[in-house]
Amino acid sequence: MKNILCNLTFCLLVTFASGQFMETNYAGRSVISSSGEKTPIIEISGFPECNPGIFLSQDANTSLYAVDSSTNPFTFTSIGSPADLAYNATGYNPKDGFLYAIKRGFPSTMLKIDPTTGMVEDLGEIEGLPSIMWFVIRYVSGDIDDNGNYYVLSYPNADNNQQNLYKINIENRTATLIRLTESLSTFDFAYNINDGKLYGVHIINYGNSDSSIRKSQLYSIDPTTGAVSFIGSANDDAGVVGAMYGAAGHIYGAKNMGGLYKYNTTTGERTFISSSPFSNTENDGAHCVSLPLIFSTDLYVTKTDGKSYYTAGSSTTYTIVAGNNGPFGVQGAIVTDHVPAGIPAENVSYTAVVSGGASSGITGTVAGSINDVISLPVGGKVTYTVKVHIPASLTGNLTNIVSIASPPDSNDLDPNNNIATDTNINVGTCVRPGDFTSDGQPTKIGITTQTKQQLWPGNIPNGFLALESKDKGMVISRVLNSAKITDPKEGMLIYDITDKCVKLHNGTVWNCIKNTCDPLVEAPRKIRIGSFAGYTIGKSNFSAYNSQLTNLSNYGPTGTFKGITGFDFSDLSSAVLTSNTGDQLKNSYDIINTGYSSMTSVQAQHVADFVKEGGVAIINLDNTAYNFNPILTAFGIIGSNGNGAVSALSSSVNELSNVFGNTKNISLSGAATQGRVLANQLPSASTVYANETVTGGGVAVWTIGRDFKGKVIFVWDEGLFRASTIAETIIDTPQERFVHNLMAYALIQLGFQP
What we know:
Elements: E1 2-6, E2 11-17, E3 29-31, E4 39-45, E5 54-58, E6 63-68, E7 75-79, E8 87-92, E9 99-103, E10 109-113, E11 120-125, E12 139-144, E13 149-154, E14 164-169, E15 174-179, E16 189-192, E17 197-204, E18 215-222, E19 227-235, E20 241-247, E21 250-255, E22 260-263, E23 270-274, E24 284-287, E25 295-297, E26 299-304, E27 309-310, E28 315-324, E29 330-337, E30 348-355, E31 366-367, E32 370-376, E33 381-389, E34 398-405, E35 410-412, E36 419-426, E37 445-448, E38 465-468, E39 478-479, E40 493-496, E41 501-505, E42 510-512, E43 526-532, H1 543-549, E44 566-571, H2 574-579, H3 582-588, E45 591-594, H4 601-612, E46 616-620, H5 629-634, E47 642-643, E48 647-650, E49 667-669, E50 675-676, E51 686-692, E52 699-704, E53 712-715, H6 734-749
Parallel strand pairs: 25-35, 27-36, 37-38, 39-40, 43-44, 43-45, 45-46, 46-53
Antiparallel strand pairs: 1-2, 2-4, 3-4, 5-6, 5-24, 6-7, 8-9, 9-10, 10-11, 12-13, 13-14, 14-15, 16-17, 17-18, 18-19, 20-21, 21-22, 22-23, 26-28, 28-33, 29-32, 29-34, 30-31, 30-33, 34-36, 40-41, 41-42, 47-50, 48-49, 48-51, 51-52, 52-53
Helix pairs in contact: 3-4
Protein name: DUF11 domain-containing protein
Pfam families: DUF11 (PF01345), DUF6923 (PF21959)
């Protein structure tokens, strides 16, 4: 016995046989056995699963391509041979798994294309669809919704036929006119299953010979009413977007000039996802509208305040960087940074700065937690500066966690770098009382301006020298600057008049004694170096020096300088140097190295303020072809730089450090061109470590004290770091030792110890 059940979408063929009722499968065929003697076998003739492929059609004799989106750039494989005709307005029909298009020319017939072979079948004319000579009107925009409805729109032309949208019934080849509320100059659209609308890119002033007034803007069409809505603001890039793709509610578009973008259907913002091939003829795209496009990416997030400890009642500033290592861009990633436990939300404020084509939803200064939706092309970054006021009542560790999450259409290749945690330890009260127990050792030497007490100073335990006065103070040795001590000893104590602090010599360098609860030595970590302009640390011009810096035998837990774990090099752009204050720069960089690129007064002042905030600046000078006046002025140097000489000699008295060996009285060399600053141009609080050797020459390497506390190092020529004597990864020449003693000096100024 057989029963056949049919409706408009599929038929059931039911056959009864003996057996038990039990469902065993339901994938096009379901076998159900019964406890009796009959088994119905149900064969379902339904719709095939969607082909997940991405298809591109282009060229005069249209070729069909399968797009492999697993790599960036995409790869394109031809499907079959080019057709002997041209077609456009291509869409993928999820109801039967075929592509459909409109033939260019007269008459405008509907084509059915096999996506596996590229074979084209001409189905004939479409009732209700105007069939006009191709040079007057042709159909270039097309897509098929999840119910199999085929929408097409004509090529932009002077007759405003681009206001005529047609909804085509594929089965009976009939078209229904939907008059649009706006005229569009568009070259493709894609269907969004989430809201039932068509999306494309409208070219404003298309056809105008003045390309400067052409712009582009995302639009949507409601196919039930014909209502057109323009989304967001117009974009100056007026390139034709000839291939649009709808993918599970997401909209993508490929420009004819190259480049695949994802479009935000709320704001109109676009994000660069991948490169794509150039096309100028019959360019169109198709994809099953209900399936997503998944692109691989590697999102990451970092967070630090540059500290390992905190004091209750103080403040700290975190720098958070969210970025994308690729291979594809991403739109709609979410950065989350909750207010740390024990911190009121009103005690936290932050700003966001974008770079590399990234975008953020944050404007101005915002209080509380971060919950930002961002877009990140490959290499793009969003940098957050977060200021936290720590309550005096806070105890325990201060732990702050930030995370970044990919949107559903992204596959993150390395989720391990999606979370960053910064933990600071509470150092408690900054007091350690002396030992005044009665059984301690008596003090044997005392100086007093008071009436001498009986048994004094022996009644003060555990001292070496006791001083007493109500109106007098002790003055330790006062020197103009620490460089005046030509033979310092470990443990020597002085007052540095220039740097206005009490200094202690640790056997290597002088350090100001800090009034702080933090440990005097910074915990080992990576040092962040920002490079402004060319021929600076981290750039390819300094390849040998960079390789020596990153050699763990030189810098690292087991290296010559053990107090750090390595270096991170990054570009410091002109825009960032202009917009960021010294405090903001200090949150992003430990060391800034500037090279020969003209700098504005504002930028130079920001570098000077960065040094005052505790950062270290290395300033590479050069000849008069570059304007160094702003940076010289910012650090109190009088006048301009001149043209210098290639050779210099290090001081026989002053030495930046001796971590990498003795570098007093050694020959130094620059490369190519040099700058010149004379000794009489320097502020009084300067220390010179090298001079030009020519008669009438200037200073070559020097630091400046007072407000800058020796944390700025000037070098007469960037060639000091790339001369022929700087080679390979081992530090074994006098000049190599000098430039690394210079770096060691910079690290010690930051609080890191060898």
